[in-house]
Amino acid sequence: MIKICRPVKGDFIITNDYFGSSQWYKIHKAIDIRTKCAEFPNGIGRPILAVFTGSHIVSGSSVNGGIYYFLREADGLEARYYHLDKIRWQEGWTTRFIGDVIGWSGNTGKWTTGAHLHLEFWKKGVQLDPEPYFFNYIENL
Fold this sequence. Notes:
The protein has 141 residues and is mainly β. It has strands spanning 4-5, 13-17, 31-34, 47-49, 54-62, 66-72, 77-87, 95-96, 101-105, 116-123, 126-128, 137-138. The chain has no helices and twelve strands.
């Protein structure tokens, strides 16, 4: 398993992790990270970090997931970020390095319940439980 960095600097709270633990997991196979903190009291605008070095796959906006950003590392692991307020990307940027700011937290999309980061991990078309990666993260960048 690769080492990842935290998706936000400083402390954070995982507000939902329903992967496999209830009926809810069938539609919510992800981790939700509360972005509200002292510096960002409404949770919007907190920098969101690339959890590993990888290539930008796609970014855009969808009705349900809001503003999103997908990143893929060399072995095919993908991190998919949703509900962002805005993304940091320019034409020609392909590589994001671990810890790079890829966007800012938001409350976009129909399926949001307040400002947070919805983070999914995928590999070869299969959605993975993201929680084990959070026990294998790099403490400090």
